[in-house]
Amino acid sequence: MADVDDSAIHRLLQECRAGLDRVEPADLAAAAAAGALVVDTRPVEQRRRDGDLPGALVVDRNVLEWRLDPSSPHRLPVADDPQRRVVVVCNEGYSSSLAAATLQRLGLPNATDLRGGFQAWRAEVGG
User: Fold this and answer.
1) Beta bridge partners of residue 64, listed in sequence order
2) DSSP state of 94
3) What is the mean pLDDT of each run of 10 residues along the chain (127 residues)?
4) How far apart are CA 114 and CA 25, in angstroms?
5) Which residues pair with 39 in a beta bridge?
6) Whole-angstrom Cα distance, residue 101 to residue 88?
7) DSSP state, residue 106
8) Whole-angstrom Cα distance, residue 92 to residue 106?
């Protein structure tokens, strides 16, 4: 019998992901070309170890909501359109799902994340 994860965090991830139109690694470049804002939330240590995500805006995870919230006085100038698609990227696609769901709650209805995160993108598309 397969081991089923019934932890609270697993249930929360499932709930968050149900509201996301997640981007596949092979489709990330097309999403960016269509105007999506790709946001890399990986810590500096992971970016140094694994490399940068071309074209992504780097925003530390601990300030993401303040930098992208359309109503925040601390929002980045690039986050001026609440209807713009935002693709959050973390290392493996877990914290990005939670972050994207939170961004939706803040008024960014087209926020989503990259399925499998940077590692899946690198394995499929990157170098």
Assistant:
1) none
2) S
3) 78 96 97 98 97 96 96 94 97 98 97 98 86
4) 7
5) 57, 88
6) 10
7) T
8) 23
Interatomic CA distance for residues 53 and 89, integer angstroms: 9
Of residues 41, 19, 38, the one with CA closest to residue 28: 38
Of 94, 39, 36, nearest to 63 (Cα)?
39
In degrees rounded to 5, what are phi and psi of residue 23? -95, 135
Provide the pLDDT for residue 5.
Answer: 82
For 98, residues 6+ apart whose C-beta sits below 8 A from its C-beta are 12, 13, 16
Give me the long-range contacts of 51-56 (CB less than 8 A, separation at least 24). Answer: 51/122, 51/126, 51/127, 53/89, 53/118, 53/121, 53/126, 56/89
Q: For residue 8, count other CB atoms closer than 10 A to its CB.
A: 7
Handedness of CA 42, 70, 100, 62 (dihedral sign): positive
Helix axes 8-18, 95-105, angle to 10 degrees: 50
CB 89 within 8 A of CB 42: yes
**pLDDT for position 31:** 98
How many other C-beta atoms lie within 10 A of the C-beta of residue 19? 14
In DSSP terms, 23 is beta-bridged to: 114
